[in-house]
Design brief:
The complex is a heterotrimer of chains A (about 475), B (about 210) and C (about 260). By secondary structure, chain A is of the alpha/beta class. Chain A is built from 23 helices and 12 strands. In chain A, the strands form 3 sheets. In chain A, strands 1-10-7-4-2-3 form a 6-stranded parallel sheet, with helices on both faces. The mean pLDDT of chain A is about 95. With about 210 residues, chain B is of the alpha/beta class. Chain B has a single domain, classed as NagB/RpiA/CoA transferase-like (Rossmann fold). In chain B, strands 1-12-7-4-2-3 form a 6-stranded parallel sheet, sandwiched between helices. Chain C is α/β, with parallel strands linked by helices and about 260 residues long. In chain C, about 50% of the residues lie in helices and about 15% in strands. Chain C has a 4-stranded parallel sheet, with helices on both faces. In chain C, strands 6-5-7-8 form a 4-stranded parallel sheet, sandwiched between helices. Chain C starts with 11 loop residues before the first strand and ends in a 15-residue tail after the last helix. Classes of the chains: A alpha/beta (about 475), B alpha/beta (about 210), C alpha/beta (about 260). Chains in contact: A-B, A-C. Strand 9 of chain A pairs antiparallel with strand 9 of chain B, so a sheet runs across the interface.
């Protein structure tokens, strides 16, 4: 996917004025509030959270070991494990597997790693038909848009927009009437996609976790599309990244409950499946070939530094669902695959610092994301680390650089500071004295365009305090 | 791509300051945290969870009553078969139902799939299905109605109690372990919760008491 | 450790007045002093203080943030307690100073020592001094906005509400999303003004829907932002800092109010 995070400001501004998006995001705020009620009502959630973090920290500290163990166990189950350092290598692996299977079409479940790998474009270039089976992804395939959320890829689409999309794209299939009811739309999508499940030679899914103990991978869905994608085609391809490994099934159990609770408020999603390798003799369902592609794409580098905690991320999306900025601007404004707070850390790591300066800055450091993160990732602290990298590499906006520099220079000279602030306070107080506020302020248009600036009371506290002390001393003498 | 494999593992080791075959510190936990408090009756908790997930349950005194119960379910929902029945349940008296019964996995045309659960999890309200020759996984996902036979003695309190059972050598190898916690659902169309997205629109448990 | 000349055996408190209170609203500083003195403290105001360095820290200029932290550490040496009327500035001192000096053991020890005796005003009155007998009154229906740093980094949630309930004539109502950020965010409000204003407007609708006639909060930055949006929308809701209400200093114009109401 093309990185367009450098356009954050204009994209965010446009998003604020897009009524459909604003309606959808208001819905997302309500959904997030409902999820938090479920989380807060779950006994032992905090204990589970602490345990999950400890398990993942242990795994990451021995990642090479667990990857090798996972690989060995997976091979034993008949799975072929492929390693890709870059998205390009991963694309090549996937296209080669599809060609060897003489695949004309593939069915695909939702996979953010697949987005990161650029699999959709690679399949198109290879002339392989792709059918998205997650309903959100299906809607986006019709709309030709990228996901705006890592779990609900089409949360930015309203019902009316889905009605229009289905009408436009399904009319060739002999449908005449305009479908209004969500249930009718769903039935139509189900019927159309069911055919694709049976036709496709290859099924591609992501993986929520990889389990070193038995070489299986875990797939979490509510629709069941991931299971049909895994079970029906002869060839199964699983796209994963190296940090998804966990030591045991019991470890995965801890993370699975946290994931479901934090993502949707369910104790587990409708379908949580652990897939081993290929089907055994005598089995009627299942794939004859199972391939797992493991992507690095900068993660091994993250292990070394201060961004290692980000590798604990289980992609529950609680950080974005609870982010006041994300819930106004939507996911597309962030300009890459991963939006919201987690994306503001992931994107610079997986792409570059220069074109992603807005991401960790478009954050009020309110701390809500870290508060809800089931893996206790210190997201605001990492936003600040990125800002310090900007500062060191001269990427900080010039106005901020100058403003902060001047402020700091002044604040480190208390006498001069007191003199100048006293003058400024008096001037501003005088200008706003009648109304108690200013509607326009030089150099602060950003503030005053849509809100007033309350006026200072007049003298500074330091001035008044010293006066009070002098009066007190005078009266004591 | 074995060169990529070596490169990734070597990059990971470099980042961690580890050598190949360095010492592995012990895993931090033996016991896992349970999601709900002790002292709650697992069966009651299971029923309470099913209320939330929208899964229905009827209790039967004996497994031989399953075909009859399936037939009654079909009548209630005006379903006329054919039934897809797991080989694990093939020996039950299906001819009583008067419905066409196909033993094996489900195909696209089966509205009803009948399968046997390996276990149930009270804390999460889940059914545990092992995908193997006796219980083909297609039964769980292709039909619109998923009927699951669960022995009450297989109801576990916590998810954590499941894992040791799966490692037991008697269980053989399953291609997949599927935890089912509600019907197939989606909220992708305008944020409304709808059942029957790709898989079953209803899950009904036949609990053998 | 520097020693201070004491005029009594009362706990000696250094008031960290914060740069915003110093500049915009000294009445909050005086209200803080009054509350602390009523609670039996001796209060002094070091004149070497300017700003805690949070703007530099949050902008990624860690060097300057450290320089300003050193200045604060020096200015407040020797006090029994350092107290300020802001969750955000006190969190900078309590939580972030030690982070800033992680690689400088000498300063780290001093930062930790300072952190241990530094408190936000209302939580200091409630949690350290167990002060519950307030003598003030306010006629109005108040809703309280939880400022982010105080809430999430210092655990300030019930303390201001419990104190406000003691104020005669005051009735407290909760607004929806009281814990949601108002969109101030330090430099965020000028770097991303459209998003910031949208967040402030949402806060304003929640305040209005609560039926309150007064908004109270513990951080002047947030209050300037919310007040600025309230007045721009023509709302009559008055805005005060929690210290002003607790100290009974509400006879003056509220934040954003002129001499003539």
């Amino acid at each position: 996917m093309q990185l367009s995070s450098a356009n954050f400001k204009s994209a965010a501004r446009a998003a604020l004025h897009e009524p459909n998006l604003q309606a959808a995001m208001a819905e997302n705020r309500n959904f997030a509030a409902h999820v938090r009620v479920q989380v807060d009502g779950t006994a032992n959630f905090q204990g589970l959270r602490a345990q999950a973090k400890a398990i993942k920290d242990h795994t990451l500290a021995h990642l090479d070991h667990y990857l090798e163990r996972y690989e060995a166990a997976a091979i034993k189950q008949g799975t072929q494990v492929h390693w890709a350092q870059t998205p390009e290598q991963a694309q090549q692996i996937v296209v080669d597997i599809c060609r060897q299977a003489s695949a004309r079409s593939v069915i695909k479940g939702k996979t953010m790693i697949g987005e990161e790998m650029g699999i959709n474009d690679a399949l198109a270039r290879a002339g392989i038909e792709r059918y998205e089976t997650d309903l959100g992804e299906y809607i986006l395939q019709l709309a030709d848009e990228p996901p705006s959320h890592i779990n609900g890829p089409a949360i930015h689409k309203t019902l009316e927009q889905v009605q229009d999309l289905f009408h436009e794209h399904h009319k060739d299939l002999g449908r005449e009437s305009f479908l209004h009811e969500p249930a009718e739309l769903l039935a139509e999508a189900r019927r159309l996609l069911r055919k694709r499940f049976f036709e496709a030679e290859v099924g591609i899914t992501g993986a929520n976790f990889l389990i070193a103990e038995d070489g299986s991978h875990v797939l979490v869905t509510n629709e069941g599309n991931g299971d049909l994608t895994s079970l029906l085609p002869k060839v199964r391809i699983v796209l994963a990244s190296i940090e998804k490994v966990l030591p045991s099934r019991a470890d995965a159990g801890v993370h699975l409950q946290l994931l479901a609770l934090s993502a949707t408020g369910q104790p587990l999603t409708s379908y949580t499946s652990l897939y081993g390798g290929t089907k055994n003799a005598g089995e009627l369902d299942g794939a004859e070939q199972c391939h797992v592609v493991l992507l690095d794409n900068g993660r091994s580098e993250m292990l070394a530094g201060e961004f290692r905690p980000m590798l604990r991320c289980i992609r529950c999306a609680a950080c974005m669902d609870n982010c006041p900025v994300y819930n106004w601007v939507g996911g597309h404004a962030y300009g890459w695959i991963y939006p919201g707070p987690m994306g503001s850390i992931w994107t610079p790591q997986l792409t570059n610092l220069e074109q992603t300066v807005d991401l960790p800055n478009a954050c009020t450091l309110n701390g809500r994301c870290a508060e809800v993160c089931p893996m206790q990732i210190p997201l605001p602290d990492m936003m600040r680390v990125l800002r310090s990298q900007h500062w060191q590499q001269q990427l900080t906006a010039t106005t901020t650089r100058w403003g902060i520099g001047l402020w700091a220079a002044l604040a480190s000279r208390p006498r001069l500071y007191r003199l100048l602030t006293a003058m400024a306070a008096r001037t501003m107080a005088w200008a706003g004295s009648k109304r108690g506020r200013l509607s326009r302020l030089p150099l602060a248009r950003g503030w005053t365009e849509q809100r007033d600036m309350p006026a200072p009371q007049g003298a500074t506290f330091q001035q008044l305090w010293q006066q009070r002390q002098a009066d007190k001393n005078g009266s004591e003498q | 791509m074995s060169s990529s494999r070596q490169a990734i593992l070597s990059d990971v080791r470099k980042a961690l300051g580890r050598e190949a075959h360095s010492v592995i510190e012990p895993h931090p936990f033996k016991e896992r945290i349970a999601l709900s408090q002790a002292g709650i009756d697992p069966y009651q908790q299971f029923l309470a969870r099913l209320e939330v997930t929208g899964v229905t349950l009827e209790a039967l005194a004996d497994i031989s009553q399953v075909p009859e119960a399936v037939a009654a379910f079909c009548t209630r929902h005006q379903l006329h078969g054919p039934l897809a029945v797991a080989p694990a349940l093939a020996s039950l008296p299906w001819q009583q139902t008067g419905l066409q019964t196909d033993v094996g996995t489900a195909q696209g045309h089966h509205p009803i799939g009948v399968a046997q659960a390996f276990a149930g999890i009270a804390a999460t309200g889940s059914l545990v299905m092992l995908a193997n020759a006796d219980n083909p996984a297609g039964l769980n996902f292709l039909p619109e109605y998923h009927l699951v036979v669960l022995d009450k003695s297989r109801l576990l309190g916590q998810l954590d109690q499941l894992w040791p059972l799966l490692s037991h050598p008697d269980e053989g190898t399953a291609q997949a372990v599927q935890l089912i916690t509600g019907p197939s659902s989606t909220a992708d169309i305008g944020g409304q919760l709808l059942y029957g997205a790709h898989g079953p629109r209803a899950v009904h448990i036949l609990l053998i008491d | 450790m520097a020693t201070m000349t004491r005029s009594s055996d009362k706990p000696l408190v250094g008031l960290l007045h914060t740069c915003l209170v110093d500049f915009y609203r000294p009445s909050i500083g005086f209200a803080s002093v009054q509350l602390l003195e009523q609670a039996g403290c001796e209060v002094r105001v070091p004149d070497l203080q300017t700003c805690c360095g949070q703007p530099a820290f949050n902008s990624g200029n860690f060097d300057q943030a450290r320089a300003m932290a050193r200045q604060v550490i020096k200015a407040f040496a020797g006090f029994d307690y350092v107290v300020g009327p802001s969750g955000s500035c006190m969190s900078q001192v309590k939580v972030h100073y030690p982070q800033l000096f992680a690689d400088e053991p000498d300063w780290l020890a001093q930062a930790q020592e300072l952190a241990g005796r530094s408190f936000e005003l209302v939580s200091f009155l409630s949690d350290v001094l167990n002060k519950t007998d307030l003598q003030s009154s306010y006629q109005g229906t108040v809703t309280y906005h939880d400022s982010c740093s105080g809430l999430r980094e210092l655990g300030i949630k019930q303390q201001p509400r419990k104190q406000l309930e003691q104020v005669q004539g005051l009735s407290l109502v909760e607004m929806a999303e009281a814990e949601t950020c108002c969109g101030f965010g330090g430099t965020f409000c000028v770097k991303y003004p459209e998003i910031s204003v949208r967040m402030a407007s949402q806060k304003v609708s929640n305040i209005q829907a609560s039926g309150a006639d007064t908004l109270v909060g513990g951080d002047l930055g947030c209050l300037l932002n919310i007040s600025g949006r309230l007045t721009r929308e023509g709302s009559p809701v008055r805005v005060f800092h929690v210290a002003e209400v607790l100290a009974g200093m509400t006879q003056i114009p509220a934040i954003g109010e002129g001499e003539m109401r």
